[in-house]
């Protein structure tokens, strides 16, 4: 960003494509007895992506979409449930720019009729955020908000109590499917003092959980703000299997900001539905044997379970396609009202206020972290040298360390607005420093932070907290692994549009000559490479280290004897642990300067 490009006085709409989206090659959805729409890690992006047409639908459009999909379910005497798995806060001006934060977003979010919902870790970092979750979201979704391993310290009594109900048992509207549902958070340790996260390994031993997993349900549903391949979900899956060896288990995950699907066993599967309201996850299941229909006395005979998943690009053209409607018939009055509320909130918050213009696009993961098109190169070479200066110590050499997880999104060429500041980095974290650290010690810190995971294993510190959320995905995003073992049958292949040139057969090219393959997700999961509803041109993905380092004010020829070690407050415990290891025993009396 060039300071000379903006004086902070101009106002403009963001430079954005039309909200309709782009015509694209689409794969259809397959319906089953039980169907799901799933969002996760929306982080306040309820206005949609104003600079990316393929993800440009807003929460009002989603309200309309869910309405039409529920109607389709009713018309076909099947069921549809809507699920959200947390991290609804921090990451967009619609949430972060108001005072208090979330002034508008809680009311916007509640307009969607969500059937099962849970907390993410971002709802818990600050006590005031957790308090608003208790006073707003939990009442908004009373009876549907689940907190299987999350407690809250009641400010009136000081007592520790469940933040919401531990689990829910209910029957679906049309098929009468008997469901037992849980809502988990991964073993998060960064929460503020008014919440308590109970480790999953402890919860699965508790009496209430052991009783719940022995209930005679048709299907168990685990929703969780947990990476789909993280150990917590494996523990929960195994616990249910020990009590119910043959019951279907469906998992809805989040936290890792990826599209993914996992085959846990022949009758258990899970889906993770991306980030930032780019993705609406779709899951359907066929072959469930229900007590209500008395199809069989022994459900151990249930051997025909079929599973289907899709990752829906969040734009209205895709919604038109999947709902069978068009621009005239798709919008509902309810959805329009929600969209209007979003527009009003953005106007009140002045999110389109333009600070200046970005001369080029800077990528988070689409460029190598040390390449010229990387946002981290810009931070390293331009931003940190400019801001890491303390009066009276300007002549001191500095080593500045910034954790990559503090940056959350790309900077697009063009208008850089008030909203953009929150999209790129919504966090409140100050710079700290330790003065006069021997350079021979300080120079080792970055290597330890990026590759010394074993150094932190004896503490409560997990280096993944410093990095991008994708570090929690449990797989190399450039090449997804295939899990061995019994497989669910993947259904819906015959119903998918066959696309020329990608191994799926041929089709009339003239029919789709006006369609283009936009750049986007090309997901590979345990069930193959055809999960994305939109056939994309692939984009590069580069792994990013936990932290980057900038050396500032160094002598031209020789290394400095001592440096001021500067870092973001959030990573203070990691810095101190790394220093201890780098220097053998860190001298007593050294202190972090606030």
From TrEMBL:
Residues 361-576 form the Putative 5'-nucleotidase C-terminal domain. One of its GO terms (cellular component) is cytosol. GO terms for biological process: nucleotide catabolic process. Coiled coil: none annotated. InterPro entries: 5'-Nucleotdase_C_sf, 5_nucleotidase/apyrase, Metallo-depent_PP-like, Nucleosidase_C, Pesterase_C1039, YHR202W_N. GO terms for molecular function: hydrolase activity. PANTHER family: 5'-NUCLEOTIDASE-RELATED (PTHR11575), SER_THR PROTEIN PHOSPHATASE FAMILY (AFU_ORTHOLOGUE AFUA_3G04160) (PTHR11575:SF43). This is Putative 5'-nucleotidase C-terminal domain-containing protein. The lineage of its organism: Eukaryota, Fungi, Dikarya, Ascomycota, Pezizomycotina.
